[in-house]
Every structure is written in C-alpha cells, then in structure tokens.
Write a structure and sequence with these properties.
The protein is α+β, with helices and mostly antiparallel strands. The chain has one domain. It is about 40% helix and about 10% strand. A 4-stranded antiparallel beta sheet has the order 2-1-4-3, covered by helices on one side.
C-alpha cells in the first residue's frame, strides 16, 4: 500500500473497508461511528483517539478530564490537528517504523471520528479542516505526557 493510498485513510475515503488491499489480512470493517449527530450532539476526543459522544455538550468544558484522560470537544481546528497526527502515523507505517497493531490502533478510531465529522459538518468543512495549517495548534493539556513513548510522539515517527 503506497503512502497516497494510506492518505486516503486519513481522508475517510477508505474507512468503510481500510484493509481490503491487504491480501494476507481478511477485510475488516471500521467500527460504527457514534450515533448520528443532531444539532446539539458533540464528540469529545482524546489525543490518543479515544472518544465519546454527548447530547449535552453545554454541560462540559471544552477540555474535560474523565478517568485521567483529557478529552477535547471536536471542532474543525482540533480535527485538523488530529488529522495531521494521523498522517504522521500513516507515513511511519509506510516507512516500516511502526508495526501493524500500532497502525490499526490509530486508523480504526480515526475512521469513526472522521465519519462523525462528515455526518455532523458539511463535507466542505471537513475538507477545509484537513487542509488547515495546524502547526501552531495547542492540543489538550496533558497531551504531551500521554504521547511519551506512544506512536503519536513526533520524535518517534
């Protein structure tokens, strides 16, 4: 699988069956995304791509900590930053710097998050978020501690 094929995973175009072009691996469907969004539904996402939806986003702060994990309400800027991190993982996998389980651990939840974004925002908004420059974005607090030794740590990719 080429890097450009893997980038299709980031854009969501391959999320329905991201493993179909691995002949030695049975095809697996990405898990279902959270329930379809309503105007009041929000998705909170941690930097390690754990996520949870809520129908009451107004009762939570932008950054909410649950069980020692900090989640941020997904907005286009945070989506852009997460997308940039997923691209690093795809490049690392393509360069054989991370193993398949680590790649799977990122792509599987990413597909659900991407689908949620498409169902909630317009496709144009998702495309704009993907193309936005996220280099100066400040991720949720505590993110750097959780990246230590993890696949999202830029020094290890």
């Amino acid at each position: 699988m080429s890097l450009s094929d893997r980038v299709a995973l980031v854009s969501g175009s391959a999320c329905a069956d991201p493993w179909s072009d691995f002949p030695s691996t049975p095809a697996r469907e990405a898990p279902d995304a959270p329930a379809p969004a309503t105007a009041a539904t929000a998705l909170f996402v941690a930097t390690d791509l754990q996520f949870w939806p809520t129908d009451e986003p107004e009762i939570f702060a932008r950054d909410t900590e649950l069980d020692g994990v900090t989640y941020r309400k997904l907005d286009p800027a945070y989506f852009s930053w997460l997308s940039s991190r997923v691209r690093l993982v795809i490049a690392a996998y393509d360069a054989h710097r991370i193993e398949r389980p680590a790649f799977d651990a990122v792509i599987t939840p990413w597909c659900s998050i991407y689908k949620w974004a498409l169902d909630t925002w317009s496709p144009d908004a998702v495309t704009a978020a993907e193309r936005a420059d996220s280099r100066l974005y400040i991720p949720p607090r505590g993110a750097h501690e959780r990246f230590s030794g993890q696949i999202f740590e830029s020094d290890s990719i």
